[in-house]
Specification:
There is one protein chain. The chain is mostly helical. Among the domains are: 115 residues, Up-down Bundle (Receptor-associated Protein); 65 residues. It is built from 14 helices and no strands. Helix 1 crosses helix 3, helix 6 crosses helix 7 and helix 12 packs antiparallel against helix 14. The longest helix is centred in the middle third of the chain and has 44 residues. The radius of gyration is 26 Å and the shape is elongated.
Length: 320
């Protein structure tokens, strides 16, 4: 068998094994499965074959999403990740996009005439692109929320000085500011209107938006409602601290810009040189995949690349 066929077969075998483990470790209830089967059995006689096939596919995707969510809940909540990123896709559609990206990677590898051992690697990289997009969307939402925090605290402080309650101050933020902070404060306002204690609603918001400045705000509200004090003055001081942190953080970003650019160049240059050498002299590069010493060199290069990226990240990351 050719290396291309072996690589593709190995990729699909590993993928199937991963999904099998996910299904086995998931905590799905047996009664849900029985309910789905009963519904399908009831509709078998009345529904046409096309509708029945569509229902089976939909139920299968739903079960796959539930299994993946149950497996990943042991480490982090997939539902919480989608909620934090405000993702418009359902988990089922998201994993379908991952599968489509893997197929696109396979096609791109074939069109680029890449070496056979690189096919599974390219497919895994393309399959991970939707996750990269999801994490990027989540990070952008967190950053925007953090930048909106000082203005939101000032609005709440002004509302308190004018005689409004804290809940009314949260409503002012919902009316006057854009998303995402308006959405999160709106959920807190609606939760306390439905009878949930304000402290609990704020803590739930902190779980959705793990921001240190928001943690200061939630802690100040909880302590003030227990011990009393001038809440407006506390919010003004927190807002001033947040603005000073952003000013210092901007200086740090400017001073570490050279290190960040160096890290990007050092990470991307070996990959670019590899593909350039591959298209200039394919036989010369293929020794890395056919010779045992070449395989060890590739493994060592990947390990050193990851180690270098982590080291540079540690050097240029300064907590403020």
């Amino acid at each position: 068998m050719s290396p291309l066929v072996i690589s593709i077969a190995a990729f699909f075998a590993v993928t199937a094994a991963v999904f099998a483990v996910i299904v086995l470790l998931s905590d799905r209830k047996s009664n849900k499965v029985e309910d789905r089967l009963s519904a399908l059995a009831r509709n078998r006689g009345s529904a046409d074959p096309a509708a029945l096939r569509e229902e089976i596919v939909r139920e299968g995707l739903s079960g796959l999403g539930a299994g993946v969510n149950g497996f990943l809940s042991k480490f982090t909540s997939l539902e919480n990740l989608f909620e934090q990123a405000a993702c418009p896709l359902t988990p089922q559609n998201f994993f379908m996009a991952c599968g489509g990206s893997a197929v696109a990677g396979l096609v791109a590898s074939a069109l680029a005439r890449a070496p056979g051992p690189l096919y599974p690697v390219v497919m895994l990289v393309f399959a991970g692109l939707p996750f990269v997009w999801l994490w990027w969307r989540r990070k952008c939402r967190f950053d925007k929320f953090a930048k909106q925090m000082p203005d939101a605290l000032e609005l709440v402080g002004r509302a308190l000085r004018s005689g409004h309650s804290l809940a009314s101050g949260l409503r002012v933020v919902v009316d006057e500011m854009p998303a995402p902070i308006a959405d999160e404060f709106g959920r807190v306002y609606e939760s306390q209107n439905l009878g949930i204690p304000l402290e609990q609603a704020l803590k739930d918001m902190l779980k959705r938006m793990p921001n240190m400045d928001l943690k200061f705000f939630v802690t100040a509200v909880v302590l003030q409602r227990q011990t009393g004090g001038d809440m407006a003055e506390i919010l003004d001081k927190i807002g001033h601290i947040i603005r000073e942190r952003f000013r210092i953080l901007g200086q740090v970003q400017a001073l570490t810009g050279e290190g960040r650019i160096s890290g990007v160049v050092l990470m991307g240059l070996p990959i670019a040189l590899f593909f350039a050498c591959y298209y200039l002299n394919q036989d010369y590069v293929m020794l890395l995949f056919t010779d045992p010493l070449g395989k060890k060199m590739i493994a060592g290069a990947i390990f050193l690349q990851i180690l270098g990226a982590v080291t540079i990240k540690k050097i240029i990351t300064i907590k403020v």
